[in-house]
């Protein structure tokens, strides 16, 4: 931050320093000076560097400025550079010789911006606060742009991490000393490591601890929501998470420079009501971002066919909190069905939705006094689209579409008002005028006429005076310093009459006024000013009228967002042949011809891809906690093991947000958590080794999975020596299987062929393999998941496909042969580590079979049939 210099400052700079002292140290102060926002001292140096603008000097100190009308395009760059931006505006018209009055009008921070161009239209924009006390950890999050405001408390902060990752907040508020203490608590070590990393990738603002005081927080929340108690929201007034909610309100108030006006509801988030996906699983399944950190290639992108930004944000919120509530999920599924059954009507509604504006966010800005005429135009255009949308929705027969129609209000009166009041084209600033339609307000029309007639009068005067003086090219002109004047070129000066009063001499011309012109000028300027003032008054009245309907408009906006999302899903279901999954509370998972939604879409778009195949090969799945609880999947590299196990997790996730799923048929017993242990590339940046990350994630799964969870494990144990890895994988499977009759539904993909022997000792484990064919020492990927274990890994053939030099491939083959011969002489892991007593007998049998597993023979008859079926377009030949 800039330090105030010791020398005597001008009054303006004294004013500057007063505000500089008021705003947070890490904010850059933009100080309005005429037509510029100026930065001074250290702010100027930093601002000029970030914005790439010229650094100048004023009275010996650094200064850098941006034109005020271009501020909107500069500010996002400062925010993107992680800076906060404080704005001090001029709040009166400058008078010569008088220090202009200024006020701090706004502090823009990553989590509290509201302006359209500073928000990503398709993403929620959360400010998150977290604190802790003896009872546990308390979080609150608010999207100030829409007023979405929630709280959550958990004894164990790890339970909040899935939520934080899904929210992907723009800014995090933490209590300074309380949060510093978390690092020293041994029991929080694992969580803190993860949270610390999370904070490292998000903007964090530390606040004094007292801002997180629970009782004061409860009061701020009541004030902000304008209610006497929180019972209506089902929240106790002593709920500990109100501490963080209070900190959010205080921060929002400080940054908006007045209390937020668009909060009307507080909701309590209970982790037990959602399907939880821990941060690693969200990353591994590429739910919100692909492995390349792009939206393209993620699940959200694959199931997003929304036409509106609000619809896209709703999808993000729903994917962040998949449900366990059958009734709600069935409502969503039915909505998709209603729209799917009426494609013509649905696309008509969707087309109309493309014309509506983001009224949820517009209202947020209007309520928080960020007002511009075009936003009113946005509300008007949206309301204009409503009758058509309602009419089309009325033609649907489905019950849910009908219910949704009921939530879209017509707003006839407000629509008529805005239609009659607002011009078709609107300015971006109130001060530009031209907002109000002629004929809407008598007084404003009168002033407008006066100003217009005066302009005609000026034109007449110009003609009259040209005739009188004989100066043919004399013109009436206007400028801010002198007002209206006659401009006469030097060559015509001799013709100027005596009643012309000289005002200014230019190189080639002179400027004059007359008494008549001066009188008229006063009349015109006052008519213009009065007309503008009247327009501003009418504008404010219109805003108030809109805000009277704010709640109803918000409700309509959320219904429109749902309709948009459902229609989008119905289009995806039709285009990609999704089915409506049966949902129940049984612990089973049955998928017929399931597909990976993202890989399938990418393959269709890019059929020249490495897979070499144009269409995705569907596969079946059957799991149940009591019978076929664990599917152990083996198969060569590149066969499709990872894709298969991920597709199952994605199908379950989609089903639990209410979307239809990429399968021919599916029956899904609701899942409380999805765990995955897949790749680890992201984690290396955290300073953990691949193996450490793998073990951390595995520990998390084993400690937290319940009977209702779904677990996908990919190549567990590969990050260490073969025998260590194999032993760990072996023990993990045994643990998940357990002794009892039930356990989490698990898919385990592995290259450790020894594990396939577990089928004989673990009653609820089944072997599967992803099949391939050999053809002249090359392999053909068939991508079919079939019962039984794979015979070998074909790693060398795959390496050849990847382009390894022939010399290396040949040498590898020789080494492999040697190793295989040696391996036969070496004792197997089963002999090194005896299984538990009661399995000893079975294990002895396995040992016998290990060298020549029965599964291989069982599959001997399968290849011909597979080749036949898959040649029809699905076979991939390299
Ligand atoms: N069912 C399928 N239909 C068509 N192509 C598929 C299918 N499954 C996977 N693929 C293609 O095969 C590629 C490799 O799949 P995947 O990564 O799942 O193999 P893998 O068996 O896990 O390999 P590795 O053991 O080497 O990790 C994928 O990128 C995809 O393009």
From TrEMBL:
<dbReference type="InterPro" id="IPR027417">
    <property type="entry name" value="P-loop_NTPase"/>
</dbReference>
<dbReference type="InterPro" id="IPR007695">
    <property type="entry name" value="DNA_mismatch_repair_MutS-lik_N"/>
</dbReference>
<feature type="domain" description="DNA mismatch repair proteins mutS family">
    <location>
        <begin position="709"/>
        <end position="725"/>
    </location>
</feature>
<dbReference type="Pfam" id="PF00488">
    <property type="entry name" value="MutS_V"/>
</dbReference>
<dbReference type="GO" id="GO:0140664">
    <property type="term" value="F:ATP-dependent DNA damage sensor activity"/>
</dbReference>
<dbReference type="GO" id="GO:0030983">
    <property type="term" value="F:mismatched DNA binding"/>
</dbReference>
<dbReference type="InterPro" id="IPR007696">
    <property type="entry name" value="DNA_mismatch_repair_MutS_core"/>
</dbReference>
<keyword id="KW-0227">DNA damage</keyword>
<dbReference type="Pfam" id="PF05190">
    <property type="entry name" value="MutS_IV"/>
</dbReference>
<dbReference type="InterPro" id="IPR007861">
    <property type="entry name" value="DNA_mismatch_repair_MutS_clamp"/>
</dbReference>
<feature type="region of interest" description="Disordered">
    <location>
        <begin position="823"/>
        <end position="878"/>
    </location>
</feature>
<dbReference type="InterPro" id="IPR000432">
    <property type="entry name" value="DNA_mismatch_repair_MutS_C"/>
</dbReference>
<dbReference type="InterPro" id="IPR005748">
    <property type="entry name" value="DNA_mismatch_repair_MutS"/>
</dbReference>
<dbReference type="Pfam" id="PF05192">
    <property type="entry name" value="MutS_III"/>
</dbReference>
<dbReference type="InterPro" id="IPR036678">
    <property type="entry name" value="MutS_con_dom_sf"/>
</dbReference>
<comment type="similarity">
    <text>Belongs to the DNA mismatch repair MutS family.</text>
</comment>
<keyword id="KW-0067">ATP-binding</keyword>
<keyword id="KW-0234">DNA repair</keyword>
<dbReference type="InterPro" id="IPR036187">
    <property type="entry name" value="DNA_mismatch_repair_MutS_sf"/>
</dbReference>
<dbReference type="GO" id="GO:0005829">
    <property type="term" value="C:cytosol"/>
</dbReference>
<comment type="function">
    <text>This protein is involved in the repair of mismatches in DNA. It is possible that it carries out the mismatch recognition step. This protein has a weak ATPase activity.</text>
</comment>
<keyword id="KW-0547">Nucleotide-binding</keyword>
<dbReference type="InterPro" id="IPR045076">
    <property type="entry name" value="MutS"/>
</dbReference>
<dbReference type="InterPro" id="IPR007860">
    <property type="entry name" value="DNA_mmatch_repair_MutS_con_dom"/>
</dbReference>
<feature type="binding site">
    <location>
        <begin position="635"/>
        <end position="642"/>
    </location>
    <ligand>
        <name>ATP</name>
    </ligand>
</feature>
<protein>
    <recommendedName>
        <fullName>DNA mismatch repair protein MutS</fullName>
    </recommendedName>
</protein>
<dbReference type="GO" id="GO:0005524">
    <property type="term" value="F:ATP binding"/>
</dbReference>
<dbReference type="GO" id="GO:0003684">
    <property type="term" value="F:damaged DNA binding"/>
</dbReference>
<dbReference type="GO" id="GO:0006298">
    <property type="term" value="P:mismatch repair"/>
</dbReference>
<keyword id="KW-0238">DNA-binding</keyword>
<dbReference type="InterPro" id="IPR017261">
    <property type="entry name" value="DNA_mismatch_repair_MutS/MSH"/>
</dbReference>
<dbReference type="Pfam" id="PF01624">
    <property type="entry name" value="MutS_I"/>
</dbReference>
<dbReference type="InterPro" id="IPR016151">
    <property type="entry name" value="DNA_mismatch_repair_MutS_N"/>
</dbReference>
<dbReference type="Pfam" id="PF05188">
    <property type="entry name" value="MutS_II"/>
</dbReference>
């Amino acid at each position: 931050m800039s330090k105030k210099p010791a020398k005597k400052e001008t009054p303006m700079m004294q004013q500057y320093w007063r505000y500089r002292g008021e705003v947070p140290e890490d904010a850059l102060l933009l100080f309005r000076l005429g037509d510029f926002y100026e930065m001074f001292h250290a702010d100027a140096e930093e601002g000029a560097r970030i914005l790439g603008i010229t650094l100048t000097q004023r009275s010996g100190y650094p200064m850098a400025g941006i034109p005020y009308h271009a501020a909107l395009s500069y500010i996002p760059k400062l925010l993107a550079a992680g800076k906060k931006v404080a704005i001090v505006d001029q709040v009166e018209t400058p008078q010569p010789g008088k220090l202009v009055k200024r006020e701090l009008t706004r502090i823009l921070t990553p989590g509290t911006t509201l302006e359209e161009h500073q928000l990503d239209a398709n993403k929620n924009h959360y400010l998150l606060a977290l604190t802790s006390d003896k009872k546990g950890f308390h979080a609150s999050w608010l999207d100030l742009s829409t007023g979405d405001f929630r709280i959550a408390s958990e004894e164990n902060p790890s339970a909040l991490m899935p939520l934080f990752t899904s929210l992907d907040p723009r800014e995090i508020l933490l209590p300074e000393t309380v949060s510093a203490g978390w690092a020293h608590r041994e029991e929080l070590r694992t969580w803190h490591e993860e949270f610390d990393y999370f904070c490292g990738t998000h903007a964090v603002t530390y606040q004094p601890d007292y801002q997180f005081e629970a009782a004061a927080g409860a009061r701020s929340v009541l004030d902000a929501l304008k209610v006497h108690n929180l019972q209506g929201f089902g929240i106790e007034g002593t709920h500990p998470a109100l501490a963080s909610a209070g900190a959010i309100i205080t921060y929002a108030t400080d940054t908006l420079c007045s209390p937020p006006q668009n909060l009307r509801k507080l909701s309590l988030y209970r982790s037990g009501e959602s399907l939880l996906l821990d941060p690693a699983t969200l990353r591994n399944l590429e739910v919100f971002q692909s492995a390349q950190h792009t939206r393209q290639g993620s699940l959200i992108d694959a199931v997003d066919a929304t036409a509106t930004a609000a619809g896209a944000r709703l999808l993000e919120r729903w994917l962040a909190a998949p449900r366990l509530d059958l009734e709600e999920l069935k409502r969503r599924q039915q909505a998709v069905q209603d729209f799917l059954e009426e494609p013509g009507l649905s696309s008509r509604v969707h087309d109309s939705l493309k014309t509506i504006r983001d009224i949820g966010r517009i209202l947020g800005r209007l309520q928080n006094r960020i007002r511009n005429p075009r936003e009113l135009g946005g509300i008007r255009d949206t309301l204009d689209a409503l009758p058509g949308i309602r009419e089309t929705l009325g033609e649907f027969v489905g019950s849910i579409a009908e219910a949704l129609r009921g939530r879209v209000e017509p707003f006839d009166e407000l629509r008529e008002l805005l239609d009659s009041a607002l011009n078709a084209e609107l300015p971006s600033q109130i001060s530009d005028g031209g907002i109000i339609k002629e004929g809407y307000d008598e007084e404003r029309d009168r002033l407008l006429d006066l100003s217009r007639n005066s302009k005609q009068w000026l034109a007449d005067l110009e003609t009259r005076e040209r005739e009188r003086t004989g100066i043919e090219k004399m013109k009436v002109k206007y400028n801010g310093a002198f007002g209206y004047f006659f401009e006469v070129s030097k060559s015509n000066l001799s013709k100027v009459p005596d009643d012309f009063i000289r005002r200014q001499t230019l190189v080639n011309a002179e400027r004059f006024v007359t008494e008549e012109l001066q009188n008229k000028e006063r009349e015109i300027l006052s008519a213009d000013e009065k007309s503008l003032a009247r327009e501003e008054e009418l504008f404010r009245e219109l805003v108030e009228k809109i805000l009277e309907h704010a709640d109803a408009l918000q409700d309509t906006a959320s219904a429109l967002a749902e309709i948009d999302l459902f229609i989008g899903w119905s289009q995806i279901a039709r285009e990609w042949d999704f089915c409506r999954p049966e949902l129940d509370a049984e612990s089973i998972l049955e998928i017929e011809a399931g597909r990976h939604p993202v890989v399938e879409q990418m393959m269709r778009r890019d059929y020249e891809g490495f897979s070499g195949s144009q269409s995705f090969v569907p596969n079946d799945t059957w799991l149940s906690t009591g019978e076929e609880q664990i599917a152990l999947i083996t198969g060569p590299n590149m066969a499709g093991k990872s894709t298969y196990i991920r597709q199952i997790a994605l199908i379950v996730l989609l089903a639990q947000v209410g979307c239809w799923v990429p399968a021919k048929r599916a029956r899904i017993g609701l899942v409380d958590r999805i765990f995955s242990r897949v790749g680890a590339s992201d984690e290396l940046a955290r300073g953990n080794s691949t193996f450490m990350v793998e073990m951390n994630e595995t520990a998390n799964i084993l400690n937290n999975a319940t009977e209702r969870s779904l677990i996908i494990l990919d190549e567990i144990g590969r990050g260490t020596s073969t025998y260590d890895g194999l032993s760990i994988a072996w023990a993990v499977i045994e643990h998940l299987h357990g002794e009892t009759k039930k356990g989490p539904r698990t898919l385990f993909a592995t290259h450790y062929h020894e594990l396939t022997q577990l089928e004989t000792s673990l009653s609820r484990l089944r072997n599967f393999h992803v099949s391939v064919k050999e053809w002249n020492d090359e392999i053909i990927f068939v991508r079919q998941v079939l019962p039984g274990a794979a015979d070998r890994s074909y790693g060398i053939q795959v390496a050849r496909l990847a382009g390894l030099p022939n010399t290396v491939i040949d040498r590898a083959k020789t080494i492999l042969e040697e190793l295989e011969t040696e391996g036969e002489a070496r004792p197997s892991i089963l002999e090194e580590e005896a299984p538990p007593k009661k399995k000893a007998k079975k294990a002895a049998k396995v040992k016998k079979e290990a060298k020549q597993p029965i599964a291989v023979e069982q599959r001997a008859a399968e290849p011909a049939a597979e080749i036949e079926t898959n040649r029809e377009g699905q076979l991939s030949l390299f």
